[in-house]
Amino acid sequence: MVQRPPSAAVLVLHGGRETGTEPPPPGLLNLPGTRMLPFVRALERAARTAGTGAGPASASASASSAGPASATGAGSGLLVRQVRYGHRGWNGDRADPFHDAVAALDALREEAGDELPVVLLGHSMGARAALRAAGHPLVRGVVGLAPWCPPGDPVTQLADRDVVLVHSNRDRLTSPQASQSLTARARRAGARTCMITVRGGDHAMIRRAPAWHRVTTALVLGLLGSGSLPAPVGAALALPATAEATEGTLDLDLDLGAGAGPAGRSPTAVPPRR
To answer: CA-CA distance, 158 to 139, in Å (whole number)?
Structure first.
């Protein structure tokens, strides 16, 4: 069967350290990268269920060399790809993972063209890199998990992008308050933003892992137009620039019910975003 170009792509950026110029260890020894594999697999399963063929996840795809995309069925597929960092840390003004993310986006643009919609999915340091790289022409949105959001980081590059940050209220490594603040700053800069609080979660996304996987998958596919975005998220993204940070903050259990267990309720969906 002749392979067709992907119809959309997700670039996955794992966490790291504040400083560290050595390269991450290879394969499964790279624990921050391994932590993102369940999210990659959940996205691939959901894409197949929705009728969108998912390309192979590549834990070793380099930032400068994109792996192959594949498609199934009549339509072109969703490409899910991880970015390999050259260095383990952010490293101050060097912002190494940001440059790796931009290089991966440039390679994807050369491979698949200028019209490919991309969502950046990042965890912790990877979410910081995703937010910083969101000004790239391919990027339609960012989903940041337990993001590292220093107060001085820029937000103007997020204009006209969809940004959803998901953060545990018990995170002790990165600040949920800083995530909430960033959503308000980015909204004033022209972004469409939302924050989702995971009660009882943790930074590593081990506690309540199925809930993290489900809500992340729904957000990514919804922002790409391959699935339905939960209605409360769509309403938060539509808030005016003057909205307070608390107005765009949702509770996973009370507002979405995604993976909330018996206490949750089924979310109402809105049509896929284009």
So the answer is: 10
